[in-house]
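S.,

Sequence below, as promised.
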Amino acid sequence: MKVHSHLSLRHAESIAESLISDLPRAIDVRVLEEVTLDEEVLSNYDFDILITTETLILDIEQPIVYMYKSRSSYQYEYLHDLIRKIAKQKEVQASEKFLNKLQSFPTPLKIDD
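The prediction came back faster than expected:
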């Protein structure tokens, strides 16, 4: 998850600190230091969700969550829904990747009970 504030780097850091304190430790929250964001800038980063303090109309795959200074229950509920959805997608992708590797073995593996 990347956090960006058009106001200041310190503002973005405050939002990130708040998110880190509230979200599970497995979720990586990092601050983007760029002053302005566009598709080209964001293409240099690997992230699942963009948290921003300004309304951005960008053509990117990742969802964008608007969060100014105080979290509303709607924003947080939406963020948690996104996190659950992305976690499920990653779980399915990891499972498919494992099964594909398993199928690439020349002989079936014997698994003893």
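The first strand starts at residue 2 and ends at 4.

Coffee later?
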